[in-house]
Hints:
By secondary structure, the protein is an all-beta fold.
Amino acid sequence: YVFVVELEDEASDVGTVRPVDVMLGMSDGMEIKVNGLLSPDDLVVVEGNERLKPGERVRILREANYDGDDP
């Protein structure tokens, strides 16, 4: 499973995590396809998830957009 963050409201950076069952699919060495009940706009926890428990509150730390070009 992965943890998905449900924000308190659209303008918030605080939310609650819930587990979503997934199955890993094909990999190309850089990316892995994930099959499950995820939506394209879901916020999936990618760091620190090993310490989370369902229902915990988290704060979203957003990274700057990266366009692939070096600064």
